[in-house]
Amino acid sequence: MENESRDLALIAWREDGRWRVSKLPTGAANDIGLVLDALRAQQNNGGALAMLSIDDEFIILARLLGVNMQMALSDVTAALDYEIAAEVLELGDIEFPVDEDPMEPAGDMNLFSDLGLDEMELRMICEDTDMYPEEQLEIIASRLGFSEELAEMIDGN
Q1: Which entry of 4, 13, 91, 99 is 20 to 30 Å from 115 by CA?
Q2: Do the domain assignments include residue 140?
Q3: Is residue 3 in a domain?
């Protein structure tokens, strides 16, 4: 079981009226720069979005629409232990947490509101500690309309 990854890193975009889903490049779960590069490379009229589940601990959501980059983190305290979470906070100009801070989402929780997933619902998904991060991503994908494409990508490993 050496080097078993518990990360899921994907990019989704709309093309010809359909959602397309693909894995992000190897290493993207450890490097926000790779995520941002993949989003820029996949630019289209509807923008592209990235969803990452890291170590069964937290999720990162990012969306590039034109020149507007939006990012959210399901648990701000993840930045205390994970460099990629700290990078999200830095890029989003979000205050770095301290040990006593509560686990709560941070960043732009409205990043999918025009796609039918508003801030309140996204916040509820992120705050649900009974779900694994991958399950949270599955719910988000379902609400955005690409749960089947996500399942096919995961099953196709």
Answers
A1: 91
A2: yes
A3: no
